[in-house]
């Protein structure tokens, strides 16, 4: 026995030995095979292939058998460039049954494959067809014809396809393919050119590529590709077992042309653009299709949609996938443009639609739907609404999209259903979850109301909402939130749109046996007016679609104006009333409870029984402004209405709405200045005879109470008795109203007003009642004033009255009046000023009544006890009885008549409009016919035996001083009239036989006056911004010395400088001043303001013997008059007689002219204060004996005293006055001292020369007089010619001695000094010699300054 190692070694060597033997036999087999193959290859190349063309008939026959068509081969050749030969066939044609060429193959190249030896059948490494021409035809029965031969399943056709798909590679270059589909009668044949195709086959793999160019109208060159696999043992041509991917790329295709030959998905009839498609095939069946679309001008129809979609552009990746129970559609990157006037762009989104349907006829030809699922990441609802019936979503959704017009974006949509969606029926089973943002939904109007459904509700709409939803056919839940949105709910909300800044509304609903139940979980709703908290539920109610609602709501506060906004529109009357009546303020702590069937809302309580539900709103009114009878503008259902009742302000109390009514109780309020307590304000039913019942009390100012009465229907119910009243103090009262809101004419009222010691003025033209304590009871039919007391006209008065049975409102008063009280009665102008002259008291009775809108007033008194300290004829002692009657009788249109009778001395009648006099007449004097009133204004008629105007002037000035616009100047005083009296005392003067007429027209006061001293016409026109203007045309005017002295006194007191000076246009035919009749006066002066110079433009006095002309100014500030004047004398003697210097001069004519000034008025030139200068040029006169006074100066100048005092006898020359042929010279006056150096008088017998001065104030003189006798003409002539203002008497005498010694010897020289009444005359004995003559004096022509 061998050892173990030896056995192990032997066991290891046996397998190696067996392996070596196997390898040896394998090598021998392979070598033998190669020898066989080499032998066959040598036979093929050297024996068969060189003679292949001889076998062409056998090849044609064999090919005809394979193809089923007659095959003709033009030539056959072989090329060998390697181990395997290449066959080249030219002009290969397949003929149809008629012997026509069905397929033309100009060149066919076939490279044999070595696999042919293994398969024992010819296998080609490559089959190349160059520019083949092929026609494919599908007949009407669905049979495919290739090259004129039908392509049948099985038999030779199966062998041909198996052989074709067994070849390694088949290539076609530049081919032409024509496709004809006889199943489409309208389709034109499709001719594809430049067809390049490549088919590569493997053991399990098939790869195909086809590139072809369609006709130009069909698009650009396209490419079709496929990569498919088959089972390992399957036949190569059994395509039903193939699986893989097909790909198509159409860079530019016109779908309208392609649809003639190809069935397109989605009923796509038009469109152009690029298409790419990937088709998944599983065992010959299409399982999935993915297509990229970039099209323009698309026209398609989605499934069973009613309308087509027309899209200017469409981009998407569309996917279809077969499912076990249907198919799934998906759109990725979907975006398109919806056409129209304003194109809308659908942004990029993704949709997935899974459909369950019966067996499909193709990828896009599903059978009837039995369910589905839709998933989307983004849906634009506004675009979906525009797509409308182009969407296959069923009639219900179609109608919803059309009517609700949704907007917003839906995201995360997942909807699944089972069952068909057709018509208006929803699938029997469905589920949906979604969320939406920026959601808007149009509300639907409420249907027409009916007897069964009187308050139908529409469907709500909203804007600015976000929604999250999860629902099934059995129920669901949702949360609706709003941010800066709004809600619309026809039939429920009263406003068209309720802004909602914020809201959170969680909802749940579920299906029950009798319908649905919807629950509102605790929700919040913030509006512009309130922050509401809501909760409740709604459930279906059989027979009543509106159902049953339970709702609780609360709000911390709500603006009062917004209360109506939140009431249901089913309460139109309540809502309308509250919208008009709640004007301001807030409702706090608002609580709402609603529980009941909505068809019975607002649950009125029947006469018998209980209400069907509860509707109650409670709140606390806080400073609410409540117009309980509101105004409203005009609208479609009602005319405009202005309420006569003022609103209650600051109402604070309990506010409650219960069913169809409203109640306010325990409230405080204000009405103007009144504080009110509203015990109850209730409207039981707004819808049926709405009547407001209001009860309350008030207190406040009497003025506020009057304002309330005057501004409300209380004014009419009190017959406007207090319509014009004014009051002070406090008042209080009660008020109870029943106001049918739709028939206010049948309102009822009851209440009272109490005045607590204040003041009351019943009418503006009546004095005020003071310390009045009164109570007025009123109701809708009238009122009664209980006996009341007050102070009136300075005494106590008792008043009562009210609405009488005859419809007249009458007040009666009994009391006493005092002079002091009458002074306070400013309403009875000008009585207060007249009462300044009254004293004492007197009794009176008064009656005030209204009939309609016409008030009547009558006051009567005997005036006993009242003293009238007025000028005659109105002076009355206290004990005298003068019956007084004052009556106001009302007329229509605001007119009335006022009459006043005082004894037998005064009557007055006025016609008034709105309590202002329009015209009237006043008569003072003995009884006579009633004076007529003018058309406008008030006339005064005075007819008295003696009229002392000086006594009346102070009172008249007081009356006039009140001015326009004051009670005194309000039209009761006369603005025209007439005066007739034998004696008139005025300004201290007595005018006789006075007849005057006065009128005022357009502000100008005119007077015609006739008396013994003044006669003519005067007009005074005041100016608003100036001193006025005076115009006078007088026949005569006499101003006595007293008048001028009064003017001087006025000037001395400085009043002239404080007054403005009017413009004056004065013409007097016969002017007399201080007893001097000066002739015709013409004065024209310009107006001047106070203190400014008054310019005298023209001053002219025309006397029969003289004419004075002057112009200058009166300077009030300096109290000075300055005039430049000239006096032309035709007979100076008679003129001096007229001005008060009679017998001074006889004859004499000439002119005096110069400038004079003096302190004082122009009426009173005072010689003693004159300044200025003038010149004298007179002739043909004679000085007469002068009387004492100012004329004495002329006596001195006339040298009448010389005959009595001189030894030298000049008596025959001067004793009776010096007759002169010429009297001339220049006189300068300064401070009343007149100086002259050249006065000269020339007569027949002598010439007189004078040099010196005269003091006009002291009436003294200091003159040197030189008398030159007329011995010969030479001396007098020399004297007359030589003397001039530049030569004094001394110089003249010296010259006279030298030139005329004889005349000088006869010349007499005098000195005249002393007073004018007794002048001292001294003769100068020593004549002047030339040596002693003084130096020449300054020339008289040198200027002399005047003051």
Topology:
Layout: H1 4-48, H2 56-67, E1 70-80, E2 85-95, E3 101-112, H3 115-119, E4 124-130, E5 133-138, E6 144-146, E7 149-150, H4 155-164, E8 169-181, E9 190-201, E10 205-213, E11 222-229, E12 243-254, H5 255-258, E13 270-282, E14 285-300, E15 309-323, E16 326-338, E17 344-357, E18 369-376, E19 379-380, H6 381-387, H7 394-404, E20 407-418, E21 429-441, E22 461-472, E23 475-488, E24 498-512, E25 515-526, E26 531-541, E27 544-559, H8 572-581, E28 582-597, E29 614-626, E30 648-658, E31 661-671, E32 674-683, E33 691-701, H9 702-710, H10 714-717, E34 726-727, E35 730-740, E36 748-761, E37 769-779, E38 782-792, E39 795-803, E40 809-818, H11 819-823, H12 831-834, E41 838-851, E42 854-861, E43 866-868, E44 884-890, E45 895-902, E46 906-913, E47 916-924, E48 937-943, E49 946-948, H13 949-961, E50 976-986, E51 989-1001, E52 1004-1010, E53 1014-1023, E54 1026-1039, H14 1041-1052, E55 1063-1073, E56 1076-1085, E57 1094-1103, E58 1106-1115, E59 1120-1129, H15 1132-1138, E60 1145-1159, E61 1171-1183, H16 1191-1197, H17 1202-1205, H18 1211-1214, E62 1219-1220, ...
Parallel strand pairs: 4-8, 5-8, 47-48, 48-50, 49-50, 54-55
Antiparallel strand pairs: 1-2, 2-3, 3-4, 5-6, 6-7, 8-9, 9-10, 10-11, 11-12, 12-13, 13-14, 14-15, 15-16, 16-17, 17-18, 18-20, 19-20, 20-21, 21-22, 22-23, 23-24, 24-25, 25-26, 26-27, 27-28, 28-29, 29-30, 30-31, 31-32, 32-33, 33-35, 34-36, 35-36, 36-37, 37-38, 38-39, 39-40, 40-41, 41-42, 41-43, ...
């Amino acid at each position: 026995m061998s050892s173990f190692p030896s056995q192990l070694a032997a066991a290891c060597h046996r397998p190696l030995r067996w392996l070596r033997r196997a390898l040896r036999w394998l090598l021998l087999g392979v070598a033998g095979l190669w020898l066989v193959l080499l032998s066959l290859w040598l036979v093929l190349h050297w024996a068969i292939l060189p003679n292949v063309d001889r076998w062409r008939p056998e090849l044609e026959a064999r090919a005809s058998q394979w193809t089923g068509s007659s095959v003709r081969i033009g030539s056959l050749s072989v090329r060998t460039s390697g181990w395997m030969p290449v066959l080249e066939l030219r002009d290969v044609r397949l003929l149809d049954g008629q012997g026509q060429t069905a397929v033309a193959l100009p060149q066919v190249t076939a490279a044999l494959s070595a696999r042919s030896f293994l398969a024992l059948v010819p296998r080609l490494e490559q089959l190349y067809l160059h520019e083949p021409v092929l026609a494919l035809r599908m007949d009407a029965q669905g049979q495919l014809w290739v090259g004129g031969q039908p392509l049948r399943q099985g038999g030779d056709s199966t062998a041909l396809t198996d052989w074709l798909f067994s070849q390694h590679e088949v290539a076609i270059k530049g081919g032409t393919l024509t496709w004809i589909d006889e199943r489409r009668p309208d389709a034109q044949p499709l001719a594809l050119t430049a067809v390049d195709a490549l088919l590569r086959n493997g053991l399990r793999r098939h790869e195909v590529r086809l590139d072809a160019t369609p006709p130009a109208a069909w698009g650009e060159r396209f490419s079709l590709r496929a990569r498919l696999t088959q089972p390992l043992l399957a036949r190569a041509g059994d395509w039903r077992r193939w699986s893989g991917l097909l790909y198509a790329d159409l860079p530019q295709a016109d779908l309208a042309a392609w649809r003639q030959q190809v069935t397109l998905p989605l009923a796509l009839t038009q469109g152009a653009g690029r298409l790419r498609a990937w088709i998944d095939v599983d065992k010959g069946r299409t399982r999935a299709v993915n297509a990229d679309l970039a099209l323009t001008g698309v026209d398609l129809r989605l499934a069973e949609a009613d309308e087509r979609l027309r899209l200017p552009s469409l981009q998407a990746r569309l996917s279809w996938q077969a499912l076990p129970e249907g198919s799934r559609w998906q759109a990725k990157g979907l975006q398109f443009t919806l056409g129209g006037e304003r194109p809308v762009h659908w942004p990029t989104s993704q949709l997935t639609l899974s459909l369950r349907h019966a067996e499909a006829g193709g990828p896009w030809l599903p059978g009837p739907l039995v369910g589905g699922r839709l998933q989307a990441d983004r849906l634009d609802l506004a675009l979906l609404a525009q797509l409308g019936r182009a969407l296959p979503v069923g009639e219900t959704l179609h109608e919803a999209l059309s009517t609700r017009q949704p907007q917003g974006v839906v995201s995360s949509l997942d909807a699944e259903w089972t069952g068909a969606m057709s018509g208006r029926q929803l699938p029997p089973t469905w589920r949906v979850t979604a969320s939406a943002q920026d959601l808007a939904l149009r509300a639907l109007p409420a249907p027409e109301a009916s007897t069964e459904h009187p308050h139908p509700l529409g469907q709500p709409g909203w804007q600015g909402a976000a929604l999250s939803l999860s629902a099934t056919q059995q129920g669901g839940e949702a949360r609706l939130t709003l941010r800066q949105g709004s809600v619309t709910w026809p039939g429920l909300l009263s406003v068209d749109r309720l802004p909602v800044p914020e809201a959170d509304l969680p909802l749940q609903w579920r299906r029950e046996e009798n319908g649905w139940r919807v629950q509102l979980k605790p929700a919040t709703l913030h509006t512009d007016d309130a922050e509401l908290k809501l909760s409740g539920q709604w459930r279906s109610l059989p027979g009543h679609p509106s159902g049953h609602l339970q709702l609780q709501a609360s709000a911390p506060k709500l603006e009062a104006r917004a209360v109506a906004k939140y009431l249901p529109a089913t309460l139109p009357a309540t809502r309308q009333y509250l919208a008009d009546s709640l004007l301001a303020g807030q409702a706090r702590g608002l609580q709402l409870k609603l529980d009941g069937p909505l068809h019975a809302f607002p649950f009125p309580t029947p006469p018998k029984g209980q209400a069907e539900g509860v509707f109650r709103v409670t709140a606390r009114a806080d400073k609410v402004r409540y117009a309980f009878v509101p105004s409203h503008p005009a609208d479609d259902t009602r005319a405009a209405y202005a309420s006569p009742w003022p609103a209650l302000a600051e109402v604070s109390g309990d506010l409650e709405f219960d069913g169809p009514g409203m109640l306010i109780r325990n409230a405080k309020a204000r009405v103007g200045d009144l504080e009110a307590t509203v015990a109850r304000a209730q409207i039981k039913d707004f819808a049926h005879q709405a009547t407001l019942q209001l009860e309350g009390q008030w207190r406040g100012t009497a003025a506020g109470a009057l304002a309330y009465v005057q501004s409300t229907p209380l004014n009419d119910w009190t017959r406007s008795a207090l319509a014009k009243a004014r009051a002070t103090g406090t008042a209080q009262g009660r008020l109870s109203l029943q106001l049918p809101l739709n028939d206010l004419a049948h309102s009822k009222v009851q209440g009272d007003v109490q005045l607590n010691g204040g003041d009351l003025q019943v009418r503006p033209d009546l004095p005020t009642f003071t310390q009045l304590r009164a109570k007025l009871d009123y109701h809708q039919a009238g009122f009664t004033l209980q006996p009341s007391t007050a102070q009136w006209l300075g005494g106590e008065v008792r008043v009562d009255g009210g609405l009488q049975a005859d419809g007249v409102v009458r007040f009666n008063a009994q009391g006493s009046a005092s002079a002091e009280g009458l002074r306070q009665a400013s309403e009875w102008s000008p009585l207060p000023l007249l009462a300044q002259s009254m004293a004492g008291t007197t009794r009176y009775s008064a009656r005030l009544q209204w009939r309609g809108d016409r008030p009547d007033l009558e006051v009567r008194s005997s005036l006993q006890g009242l003293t009238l300290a007025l000028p005659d004829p109105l002076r009355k002692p206290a004990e005298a009885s003068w019956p007084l009657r004052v009556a106001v009788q009302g007329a229509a249109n605001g007119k009335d008549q006022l009459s006043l009778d005082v004894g037998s001395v005064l009557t007055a009648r006025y016609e008034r409009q709105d309590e202002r006099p329009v015209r009237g007449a006043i008569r003072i004097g003995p009884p006579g016919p009633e004076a007529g009133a003018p058309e406008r204004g008030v006339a005064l008629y005075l007819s008295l035996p003696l009229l002392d105007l000086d006594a009346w002037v102070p009172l008249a000035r007081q009356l006039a001083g009140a001015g326009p616009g004051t009670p005194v100047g309000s039209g009761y005083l006369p603005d025209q009239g007439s005066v007739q009296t034998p004696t008139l005392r005025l300004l201290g003067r007595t005018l006789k036989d006075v007849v005057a007429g006065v009128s005022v027209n357009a502000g100008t006061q005119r007077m015609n006056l006739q008396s013994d001293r003044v006669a003519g016409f005067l007009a005074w026109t005041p100016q608003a911004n100036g001193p006025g203007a005076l115009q006078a045309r007088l026949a005569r005017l006499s101003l006595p010395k007293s008048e001028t002295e009064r003017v001087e006194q006025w000037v001395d007191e400085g009043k002239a400088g404080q007054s403005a000076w009017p413009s004056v246009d004065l013409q007097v035919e016969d002017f007399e001043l201080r007893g001097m009749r000066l002739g015709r006066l013409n004065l024209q002066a310009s107006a001047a303001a106070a203190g400014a110079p008054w310019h005298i433009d023209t001053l002219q006095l025309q006397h029969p013997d003289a004419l004075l002309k002057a112009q200058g100014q009166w300077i009030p500030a300096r109290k000075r008059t300055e005039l430049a004047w000239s006096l032309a004398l035709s007979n100076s003697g008679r003129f001096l007689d007229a001005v008060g210097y009679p017998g001074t001069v006889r004859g004499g004519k000439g002119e005096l002219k110069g400038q004079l000034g003096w302190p004082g008025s122009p009426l009173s030139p005072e010689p003693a204060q004159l300044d200025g200068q003038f010149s004298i040029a007179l002739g043909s006169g004679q000085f007469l004996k002068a009387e004492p006074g100012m004329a004495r100066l002329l006596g001195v100048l006339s040298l009448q005293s010389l005959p009595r005092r001189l030894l030298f006898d000049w008596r025959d020359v001067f004793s009776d006055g010096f007759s002169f042929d010429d009297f001339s010279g220049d006189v300068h006056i300064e401070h009343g001292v007149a100086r002259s150096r050249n006065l000269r008088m020339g007569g027949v017998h002598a010439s007189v020369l004078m040099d010196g001065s005269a003091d006009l104030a002291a009436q003294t003189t200091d003159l040197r007089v030189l008398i030159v006798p007329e011995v010969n003409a030479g001396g007098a002539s020399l004297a007359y010619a030589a003397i001039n203002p530049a030569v004094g008497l001394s110089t003249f005498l010296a010259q006279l001695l030298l030139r005329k010694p004889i005349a000088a010897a006869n010349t007499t020289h005098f000195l005249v000094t002393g007073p004018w009444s007794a002048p001292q005359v001294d003769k100068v004995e020593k004549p002047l010699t030339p040596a002693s003559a003084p130096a020449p004096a300054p020339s008289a022509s040198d200027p002399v300054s005047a003051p």
